[in-house]
Write a structure and sequence with these properties.
Oligomer: single chain
Helix content: 10-25%
Distance between the termini: 83 Å
Shape: elongated
Structural class: alpha+beta
Radius of gyration: 29 Å
Length: 228
């Protein structure tokens, strides 16, 4: 995957070259995301008594229909890189033609005979790439992406259970924002009520004054001892 500049020289060509360099560093990509589908390439450890170590790992393809929730998964029988993208034939005999284009600077995915869709993100073990349709900008990150959902703006909660690790929207107890949440760390720094705020400030001034008075007494005692 790479971007092509409209002009061979200038700031645009320089930015495209830097972006392609970033893509090489964060790739290869194992997850491709469109508005309606997610393509995942991964490996499963399936020992059969004959294989040893990595020989027991089988490559899989998973296609998730985000509109219906349908998940298709099958071992990969053959994998080929084509001029337009990749061609995968799975063990069930189904073919997956995944073409990637970038007409007018907009990354698009063409899957089999379905209409083209924007490639909104791609992720791999070394980083991620995402495209913002509103601004038309591409972004390469040396990090993984959280779901770009409004629900995750308040925070994310990651828990591990019997089914694995799950990240879901929720109040992050380490998010010291004072915008809700019942976690011990998610407390406002100042009382919201005016009366409580005045009382808080009075106690703060009293505490500082008391500490200064105590330190002053200790300083005077030490000064007297030195004179004696």
């Amino acid at each position: 995957m790479e971007a092509l500049p409209k002009e061979s020289e200038g700031i645009g060509a320089y930015n495209v070259a830097q972006f392609n360099k970033a893509l090489q560093q964060v790739g290869p990509f194992t997850v491709l995301e469109t508005p309606t589908r997610r393509f995942v390439f991964f490996a499963k450890y399936e020992p059969d008594g004959k294989c040893v170590g990595v020989e027991c790992c089988k490559n899989y393809i998973r296609v998730i229909n985000k509109e219906t929730g349908e998940i298709y998964e099958a071992p990969i029988e053959s994998f080929q890189v084509t001029p337009n993208g990749i061609y995968v034939k799975d063990a069930k005999g189904n073919e997956h033609n995944i073409g990637i284009t970038a007409e007018d600077g907009k990354p698009m995915v063409v899957y089999n005979n379905y209409p083209p869709e924007p490639l909104i993100s791609a992720q791999g073990p070394n980083g991620s790439f995402w495209y913002d349709p509103e601004t038309g900008k591409w972004h390469a990150e040396n990090a993984q992406l959280l779901p770009l959902l409004e629900a995750f703006r308040a925070g994310a909660l990651t828990q591990a259970g019997a089914g694995g690790v799950i990240t879901k929207p929720g109040d992050n107890i380490m998010n010291i924002s004072g915008l809700g949440g019942s976690g011990a760390f998610n407390l406002p720094s100042l009382p919201p009520e005016p009366g409580m705020l005045i009382l808080y400030l009075c106690m703060l001034v009293f505490s500082i004054t008391g500490i200064n008075a105590i330190l002053g007494r200790h300083a005077k005692r030490h000064a007297k001892k030195r004179r004696v």
